[in-house]
Amino acid sequence: MEKFILEACVDSVESAIAAAKGGADRLELCQNLLIGGTTPVPWLFQEIRRYTNIRIHVLIRPRFGDFCYTDYEFDLICDAVQAFHELGAEGIVIGILKPDGTLDMERMKILMEKKGDMSVTLHRAFDVCADPFAAMEQAIDLGIDTILTSGQEDTCILGKDLIKKLVKKSAGRISIQAGSSVDAGVIHDMYEYTGAAAYHMSGKIVLNSLMKHRNKNLNMGGPGIDEYEIWRTDENKIKEARRVLDKLQQR
């Protein structure tokens, strides 16, 4: 049986430690998880390395929004790939699209040449591409190890039909990793339906800020963002998901 993989998406040292203690196999390290994640600063990576030895895959995404990048943004992506390779990251999480929704093969090939010995995940740029089956074959041709996907829907449950088709069509040539609204409660049914053996979750809880003094007259983030809420990975949520995967592995 294929080994089950549990990846925790984290954007803080506290969340990384909780994920490692909970039994995650690896981290997807980012910053600004509230807006879908952006490239983390190197010192966040280094600080997590001080406290854990968990495998770290670094999200390389220079900004919020779509995945069609300018030349300046692509330079930033290349620089980040090189920087995290030098820091010792085990993997990178990348994705670039053309305006027509196809995978930007020219730029992706450049990144694959720069990755060194790091593994590569095609992130959820895949979920907004025009043809997921064509993109999967291109990812396989590039030598990408994993595709992170919600099945081109808001959640993996809604996208389970596409995920099932991708798992079948991939035939073990690439790992199809289910993400978006993954927790212990959905993994068993997702596996039974799709056959996907890799899962991606944040396991987040929302904490109340320690701030006592609060100015409610301004908002420094986007509309609806509470300045006094903190997202953190919950160790117990990771443990619960780990237990489900371990039971499936033992069957």
UniProtKB/TrEMBL annotation:
Keyword Cytoplasm (UniProt): yes
GO cellular component: cytoplasm
Major location category of this protein: cytoplasm
Compartments where found: Cytoplasm
Molecular function in Gene Ontology: copper ion binding
Keywords (A to Z) from UniProt: Cytoplasm
UniProt xrefs under InterPro entries: CutC-like (IPR005627), CutC-like_dom_sf (IPR036822)
PANTHER family hit by this protein: COPPER HOMEOSTASIS PROTEIN CUTC (PTHR12598), COPPER HOMEOSTASIS PROTEIN CUTC HOMOLOG (PTHR12598:SF0)
Family to which the UniProt record says this protein belongs: Belongs to the CutC family.
Protein name, per record: PF03932 family protein CutC
Organism field: Muricomes intestini
